[in-house]
């Protein structure tokens, strides 16, 4: 989850999110260098007494400021496309979970090996126990096995929603009448928080997502107890 | 969970960000690239000035040197970092496989035996 006043990306807990973090570092370095160049150019403009009023052509500089941006954009686009195609890979998911967006809660269905479905409502602030996170905790967490590719099928029962978990690098729209698929694979156990990411009404900010990733052995025990 | 301080929290001191965007403390290779870039900028700018005595042009050369050296170090360092990550992943998988499959027929260190087993 994010810490207070956090501006940057959350720590990665999936291979895709790690790749996204590295790409973000790369893009940020390029942005920093371009910003430095622009600031320097501005300072040059401010500190000259000369005024050239009869420029007719400037072939060299025009060539440079065409080729260099093209090269910069290529150096950003190639890693970006690599990650884009990586997110579309499907690595034999072992489990499929359906999630439906409602106004204003998520419901989850585990239908592979058991017949389990439950709703996941946000815990109101007044009902939180000490130490729990405001606007992020839910009554029923989504329990999943870690280090396992899991297929998430996402849709909606009413309006547009979006199922997002930033630390796993996931965000998929929940569209009524359409089934969207995403694959998730967490590298470590823990609680991963997300929030609805598509405006869906008055309580759009109050329908969080909490994934509880546990070792496969414990997940098997949990599923045996709940089915 | 709330008791453990997260990295970058105000209690630990804000991370230093160049121009407010580049976190040189936490981004791998950023600090080295900026430092080498600064060194390259000073060397190039000063060298140009000593040769030509042109101040403005030397500043331009310095800035150009900073950008080129920073970019060059950045790409070189990130390429090596990516190779290292891949090697770490292979090593981690190898250790896991060794622990899992030790003394079984899938043991990666087991030498294949060609003789027939007797009943």
UniProtKB/TrEMBL annotation, chain A:
Cofactor: Cu cation
One Pfam assignment: COX2_TM
Coiled-coil residues: none
One cellular component term from this protein's GO annotations in UniProt: mitochondrial inner membrane
Cofactor binding description: Binds a copper A center.
Stored Gene3D superfamilies: 1.10.287.90, Cupredoxins - blue copper proteins
Reactions catalysed according to its record: 4 Fe(II)-[cytochrome c] + O2 + 8 H(+)(in) = 4 Fe(III)-[cytochrome c] + 2 H2O + 4 H(+)(out)
InterPro entries according to UniProt: CcO_II, CcO_II-like_C, CcO_II_C, Copper_CuA, Cupredoxin, Cyt_c_oxidase_su2, Cyt_c_oxidase_su2_TM_dom, Cyt_c_oxidase_su2_TM_sf
GO process annotations (BP): ATP synthesis coupled electron transport
Domain Cytochrome oxidase subunit II copper A binding: 92-225
Membrane topology: Multi-pass membrane protein
Major subcellular location class: mitochondrion
Transmembrane segments: 27-46, 67-85
Domain called Cytochrome oxidase subunit II transmembrane region profile: residue spans: 1-91
Localization terms from the record: Mitochondrion inner membrane
Molecular function GO terms recorded: copper ion binding; cytochrome-c oxidase activity; oxidoreductase activity
UniProt entry keywords in alphabetical sequence: Copper, Electron transport, Magnesium, Membrane, Metal-binding, Mitochondrion, Mitochondrion inner membrane, Respiratory chain, Translocase, Transmembrane, Transmembrane helix, Transport
Function description: Component of the cytochrome c oxidase, the last enzyme in the mitochondrial electron transport chain which drives oxidative phosphorylation. The respiratory chain contains 3 multisubunit complexes succinate dehydrogenase (complex II, CII), ubiquinol-cytochrome c oxidoreductase (cytochrome b-c1 complex, complex III, CIII) and cytochrome c oxidase (complex IV, CIV), that cooperate to transfer electrons derived from NADH and succinate to molecular oxygen, creating an electrochemical gradient over the inner membrane that drives transmembrane transport and the ATP synthase.
PANTHER family: CYTOCHROME C OXIDASE SUBUNIT 2 (PTHR22888:SF9), CYTOCHROME C OXIDASE, SUBUNIT II (PTHR22888)
Family of the protein in this entry: Belongs to the cytochrome c oxidase subunit 2 family.
Protein name in UniProt: Cytochrome c oxidase subunit 2
Source organism (scientific name): Galeopterus variegatus
TrEMBL record, chain B:
Superkingdom of origin: Eukaryota
Cellular compartment(s): Mitochondrion inner membrane
Keywords: Membrane, Mitochondrion, Mitochondrion inner membrane, Transmembrane, Transmembrane helix
Record has Metal-binding as a keyword: no
Protein family (similarity comment): Belongs to the COX20 family.
Official protein name in the record: Cytochrome c oxidase assembly protein COX20, mitochondrial
Gene: LOC103605515
